Amino acid sequence: MNKGSPPEAGEIAPRPGLLCGVLLQGTAFFMTFSAFKTASHLMQTVIKSIQAENPDFTGSGYTSLAVIYAVFASFNWLAPSCLSFLGPKLTMIIGGITYIIFIVGFLWPHTVILYLTSVLVGAGAALIWTGQGNYLTLMSTQKTISRNSGIFWAMLQSSMLFGNLFVFYQFMGKDLIDQHTRMVVFLALTVVGVIGVGIMCFLPKPGSEGGGRADDLGGPFDALKKSFALFSTRDMLLLSATFFYTGIELSFFSGVYSTCLGFTQRFPDPKRLVGLSGMFIGVGEILGGGVFGIFGSKTVKFGRDPIVILGYLIHVLCYFLIFLNLPTKSPLGNTVDSSHLPYGEPSQVIALLCSFLLGFGDACFNTQIYSILGSVYEDSSGPAFALFKFVQSVSAAACFFYSSVFELYWHLGILIVFATIGTFTFCIVEWKAHRRLKAKPDTTAFD
Question: Rounded distance, CA 167 to CA 34, Å?
C-alpha cells in the first residue's frame, strides 16, 4: 500500500510482535479466569456442602463476592498509582497471584480465610484489570485496537466455556459435593491459575514495537482529580446508569443464576447443570464478543444504540423465561417448589437457553460500552474506564449483599428496572455523540 493511500478493506499493518503479545495476554487471562470464574460460579453451592459437613463454617458465597466487588471498587482509585511504578506486566502478575490465593483457600475452608482472601482478590482485581487495559493499549495501534480488543474479549470469555466443562463432568450425579470432589476441583483450578500467571511472566515488554502509549495523566493525584471532574459531567452521569446495570447483571449471571439452578431440586441433576450453564453463558459471551468486537468495523456503521437495544430486549426476554422456569426461593437454598411452566416442572432446555441469552446480552452491553468510552472520551480514556469499573463494581457488590436475603423475583424486578434505565441513558449519550460526529468534517474515513 502506498503512503497516504486508503487501506484495503480489512487490511491491518503487520506487527507480529504486538499481536503475539495480545495473544499471549489473552491466553494468560483465559487460564487465570478459567480458574477464578469457575470457582466463583460454584462458590455458594460448594459452601452449602461444606456447611453440611462442618456446621462451624458460617461463610457465605454471596457475602464473599460482595466483599470482593466492594474492595475492587475502592481500590480502583489506587490501582493507577501502583501501575505508575510497577508497570503493566508486574501489576498484572501481582493481581493474578491474589486470584490463586483465593482459590487455594477452598482447600482448607475456614470462614476467616474466605473473607480475608476475598479482600485480597478484590484489591488484586483492580490491579490486574488496570494492568490489562494499559498493556492492551500499549500493544495496539489506532488501527488495531478494535481488533485486539475483540480478540482479547473472545479469549477471556472462552474461560467460562472450558472451566465449566470440567465442572460438568466432575459433578455428574452428585447431590452433595463431598470433600474429595472439592479437593480435586480446587487443586485443578489452582494449577490452571498458576499456569495463567506463569504465562504473564513471559509477556513481551510493551511499547517496543511501535504500539500505542498510555494517557498522560500528569501523575496519580492529577489522574484522581481528572476522574472526579469527569464523573460530574452530564454524559458520564448518564452512562453511569448503564455501568450500574452491567454490574448488577454481572453479579446475577456470575453468582446468583448458577446458584438458583443448583438449588432447584426438581432438575434431574442440578449440580451438574451448574457447570453446563456456565458453558452456555460462555458461548453467548464468545459469540457476542466475536460479532460485536472482531467485526466491530462492520456493525459500528449502524450505530451503537441498536446493539444495546438488542441486548436489552434479549435480557428482558431472558428474565421473563427465568421467572417462568425457576422457583422464587431458589437463590436461598434447596427447594422443591414448582415453576410456572405446565405441570410445574422446570425445563433444563429453557435454563440453558437463558444462560446463553445472559451471556450474549452481556456482550452486547459491554462491547458497546468499551466502544463509546474509547470514542467519546478518546483524550481521557484512562479515567473514563476507571469510572466504568468503579460504578460496575459498586453495583455488583450491592447485588451480592442483597442476594443473601432477596428471593429470585426481586432480583428479576431490579434487573428489568435498571436495564430499562441504563439502555435509555446510553442511547441519549450515543445519539448526542452521533450528532456531534455528523457535524464534523469527515477526516477519518480511512482511519
Answer: 11
